[in-house]
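Record pair follows.
FIRST:
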Amino acid sequence: MSVAFRRESDEEHLEPKFELPIPAGPNLVTARGLRLIEARIAELEADAAKADDPAAVTSLQRDLRYWRARQVSAELAPVPAGEKVEFGTEVRFSLNDNPRTLRIVGDDEAAPAAGLISFNAPLSRAMLGAEAGDLLPFGGIEDAIEILSVAVAAD
């Protein structure tokens, strides 16, 4: 019989299941970020306890491994002074004359549509260490960012 017509099992044709990738570098979190991780773990544990579908249980267990690893590696960042752009600050800035406000948070807490960006994001990295009034290059444009104000973000 030709190898082309032989089939070992249905499993060999399924997409491989990989672990969720852990972002490189330190796992800095805000107090809010730490609470979100704890809530996510509790939610996944509850879902796993009542799930009957083996594929769903496998998926939930994979997600639990990710969030438990993030909980164990979480480093609560110190509260910023609010004088310069740093982790945990809320920054009002103008990007190419378009005013915006963003809060700099950890990787897992980031939600750009909600105004929360990771400290690892290129925009955050461009602003870290800057103070109100500073003009910064971004995207190959000199003075693309103007820092308007910096404040300690409320948790």
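SECOND:
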Amino acid sequence: MIVGVGIDVVDVERFLATLDRAPGLKERLFTPAERELPPSSLAARFAAKEAIAKALGAPGGMSWQDATVHRVVGGAPVVDLSGTVLAAAEARGVSSWHLSISHDAGIASAVAVAEGR
């Protein structure tokens, strides 16, 4: 059963300009492993986290550090949840995620589908 669907689109240049203007933002938005990714991948990870939040109904109080998006060679990306994001997912009965991310022509996008039991 589908519990929620979220989508987000990010202008990569605008996103990177925002990161440059706010030096601590990168540390707030991304886990240490994610921070090492190329700029377009960072924008795509941000879009994925936004899509996940939207699929959960955009509850307040979630920490971006509590969601890590991993690339899987030859497969769909995988999200690891912990803390506040995991609690929000569990409260809504989410048992699995389907995630698609892309970045091309200066745009990063993501779609997240939360599936319940």
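COMMENT: The mean pLDDT is 92.
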